[in-house]
Amino acid sequence: MKLPTTPEGWAIHLSKLVRAFHDAHGSPRFPIMVADIAIEYSRNVFPDAPITRVGGLDLTRKFEGMLMPIDSGTGEWGIIYNSAITSKGRINFTLAHELGHYLLHRHRSPDGIRCSSRDMGDWRSEHGQIESQANTFASFLLMPLDDFRQQTDGQKFDMDLVRHLSDRYEVSITAAILKWLGITRQRAMIVVSRDGFIDWTWSSERLFKSGIYYAARQQTVELPSQSLAALRVDEAAARAGIMHKKGVWKGDEDVFEMTIFSPKNEMTVTLLIYPNEGPDRFHGRLEPDDIGIDDTYERFMGARSTE
């Protein structure tokens, strides 16, 4: 059997096996049990280099997780997440991310790979690019497009649906929103902020082509004073959202804002929905280096995503 060579290919390959197994046994397909898949699949397909350990380890705050060779001379590997992580969504994504490294990168990194948010934010380095590949694998494995589209097509994309997606796939709210932004035809943006300032944002394809994004990594950007995120209104009201007149958020348009506050890690996640019709300033999407967009690992994991 010819094995895949791309992040998407590996994720689709494993997703098909998982689906066939659950169909045969009549068990729920989601959430994906990454630890079980990693151990069972590697034992059968790569018996000379199996994954024999999956679990938490007391790492410094700098590290989210790691792929590590087991020091026994047996060729065995371990997938580790930082035991300080308490969010099930973050843990699940970390495990999937490290499984992606195992499938895609272990031959070029025989000493293992340690994953931090800092060194994954540089698209220009080889290390940054392999982190992006591991993220792509994790996203496609945990949230397969066929099922994700079934859950979202024809549905109003609001925080209730986001919570449903987060629970169904056992991923963070941030990860669920980013997945939707990657496939939607709507003009929308996620804004992640801390202490009254924008940490990072990500625009959907159509909104980015309208020229609407924040280069928050290149300059300090304060939250709009009239935004729900800045006002820290009642949690229920923030989740339900409000329509802002143009001038509150970026762009000369009315914008619908929905926000979730996370007191535990002092992060705020905001979803902005723009009108479907808007200007198209770019005939093609710019690459991340062109405007300084940070790496997806920062968005999925370094953001300390809410459950």
Oligomer: single chain
Range of strand content: 15-25%
Helix coverage percent of residues?
25-40%
Residue-averaged pLDDT: 87
The biggest sheet amounts to: 5 strands, antiparallel
DSSP helical segment count = 12
How many structural domains does the protein architecture include? Answer: 2
Spatial order of the strands in the main sheet?
6-5-9-8-7
Based on CA atoms alone, the radius of gyration comes out at 20 Å
Structural class, please?
A: alpha+beta
Order of helices and strands: HHEEEHEHHHHEEHHHEEEHH
* Overall strand count: 9
Detail the poorly predicted runs.
284-307
Gross morphology is: globular
Q: Give the terminus-to-terminus CA distance.
A: 38 Å
Question: What does this 3D model show about the protein?
Answer:
It is a single chain. By secondary structure, this protein is α+β, with helices and mostly antiparallel strands. The chain folds into 2 domains: 7-142, Arc Repressor Mutant, subunit A (Orthogonal Bundle), CATH 1.10.10; 145-302, no CATH class. 40% of the residues lie in helices and 18% in strands. It has 12 helices and 9 strands. The chain has helices at residues 7-25, 34-45, 88-105, 126-142, 145-152, 159-169, 173-183, 205-209, 228-231, 235-240, 288-291, 296-302, and strands at residues 51-57, 63-69, 77-82, 113-116, 188-194, 197-203, 242-244, 255-262, 267-273. The strands form 2 sheets. A 5-stranded antiparallel beta sheet has the order 6-5-9-8-7. Strands 1-3-2-4 form a 4-stranded mixed beta sheet. A hairpin with a 4-residue loop joins strand 8 and strand 9. The longest helix has 19 residues, at 7-25. The protein is globular.
